[in-house]
Amino acid sequence: MSKQAFQDSYPAEFSHCYGCGRDNPHGLQLKSYWHLCAGKEHTIAYFTPKLYHTGGVPDNAYGGLIASLLDCHGTASAAAAAYKAQDRDMGTAPILRFVTASLSVDFLRPTPIEKKLTILGEVIQLEGRKATVKLSLSANDQLCATGTMIAVALK
């Protein structure tokens, strides 16, 4: 498994995203990787919210941040799975980039700020240009949010 973040394989024209773009100095710059867990391949990313990511409740992240993290990790996971299904290295031509068609998020408990968050993804279906990704976000080994994404590859 490569130690390079999925997002680092994106060409420059796809590297400006607020959530995961390496070329966006004001963004979150999320990095996603392959991860083996209990003999099963998942994707993983980490993020530590800052004080300015607070929501309406002090010391907790706002829901939009959580959705953004799941969104960017989900589309990156879909792209990585599509490359893997085609037995290609990420970033090789033709470029595979996915966008969100649907994202459903269940907020299970408040998500603390200034704590390392773990975002996991599992591509449960990849059919044609469409990928379905199951997502979760945890803090301190407590599940804070889950999500399901349908991502579609750009033509």
Automatic annotation (TrEMBL):
Entry keywords, A to Z: Apoptosis, Cell membrane, Cell projection, Cytoplasm, Fatty acid metabolism, Hydrolase, Lipid metabolism, Membrane, Transit peptide
InterPro entries on file: HotDog_dom_sf (IPR029069), THEM4/THEM5_acyl-CoA_thioest (IPR052365), Thioestr_dom (IPR006683)
UniProt similarity note: Belongs to the THEM4/THEM5 thioesterase family.
Species per Swiss-Prot/TrEMBL record: Marinomonas primoryensis
GO BP of this protein: fatty acid metabolic process
Domain Thioesterase: 61-142
GO molecular function: thiolester hydrolase activity
Any one Gene Ontology cellular component term annotated for this protein: membrane
Recorded topology in the membrane: Peripheral membrane protein
Top-rank taxon: Bacteria
Name of the featured protein: Acyl-coenzyme A thioesterase THEM4
EC number per UniProt: 3.1.2.2
Subcellular compartments: Cell projection, Ruffle membrane; Cytoplasm; Membrane
Catalytic activity: hexadecanoyl-CoA + H2O = hexadecanoate + CoA + H(+); (9Z)-octadecenoyl-CoA + H2O = (9Z)-octadecenoate + CoA + H(+); octanoyl-CoA + H2O = octanoate + CoA + H(+); dodecanoyl-CoA + H2O = dodecanoate + CoA + H(+)
